[in-house]
Model the fold of this input.
Amino acid sequence: MKKLLITGGAGFIGSHVVRLFVNKYPDYKIYNLDKLTYAGNLENLRDVEEKPNYEFIKGDITDAKFIEELFSIHSFDGVIHLAAESHVDRSISNPLEFVITNVVGTVNLLNAARHIWLAPNSTIKNPRFYHVSTDEVYGSLGETGFFTEDTKYDPHSPYSASKASSDHFVRAYFDTYKLPAVISNCSNNYGSFHFPEKLIPLAIHNIKNKKPIPVYGKGENVRDWLFVEDHARAIDVIYHKGKTGETYNIGGHNEWKNIDLIRLLCKIMDEKLGRKEGESAGLISFVLDRAGHDLRYAIDSSKLQKELGWTPSLQFEEGLERTVDWYLANETWLNNVTSGDYKKYYEGQYVKRG
Ligand code: NAD
Ligand code: DAU
Done:
């Protein structure tokens, strides 16, 4: 049985990756390593937790000794690394936490993999370290153009700087030690189990509760949205078929200005909640812009499409509708993750534009 370590598997994207791999590969043993920060939630994995090829390990990737021991106990055949601090706004208030988790945590995993896989007596055949990264490392686009795998790194937020740094470490371990690694850089994901600090689930939560929907600046920033299950499928394809040492961009060719996306969401939710047309749009509240806010992201994923045959499966309107349906059907999940400290962080913190 192949042993695959997935880090951050209790988070938003990680839980979809764990679910896909546990169900699709019964001959793999999937180990989900997660610290269970505010963003990690075992509720996201209730449907797979009893499967014989799944095991949860609570642990911290920043603890080097623990990580080394874990690798020597389990001799993993591969790693898909998703654990990270992932929210740009939080990185602006607490950059060091992002350096420690995203950079030091990644280097701890690289070291442990190197010590086990590259040891002269290693018996592990064709191991692979897959680092899951973001398009934000490329910085910001103007009105036109796309990020390709050759776009120069130009991160602007502490989050994207920490992810860029971790990408560089992964490449450095490939170049220096020949650690067999592969990287992907993906655009904005949306879908079920998304923590409601990010734009789409936050807006769904606020619309549902008739609370203001905070839109940063004038809402003119553009993001390229991809359904999370399509990202998980891309990760599967790249893990199995991607070329060692390569990078693959993942994106949906699906650009939306924030304000247009929010208006569409309001329309869908008015219909679903039986509200008057235009009622939810009345909740839109323009607030002070995010510091260093990147204007536009757009991914050219033609390398992944041509070389590995992946394509996104869903139109955005359909994906968004499915996402809204999921949140409306999973009230308990939403209530659980928005109790406790949530209110302190997400209610009343925004400065309204004058
Ligand atoms: P998330 O915040 O929902 O989940 C992160 C997970 O990592 C959580 O379960 C958390 O408990 C865990 N974690 C955090 N610190 C840890 C530590 N020290 N040790 C062990 N586990 C720890 O994030 P996400 O949105 O699912 O993103 C997953 C990965 O994908 C990240 O690396 C992120 O940079 C990348 N990514 C995200 C997007 C997106 O749109 N969300 C897009 C491209 C790339
Ligand atoms: O591009 C990939 C990245 O996408 C990932 O690497 C990050 O982990 C993920 O969080 C996401 O980053 P963004 O900053 O783009 O996502 P967020 O949902 O925070 O914001 C999306 C856009 O909406 C962005 O332009 C900021 C804006 N925004 C966000 C929030 C939370 C608002 O206008 N209001 C809000 O309340």
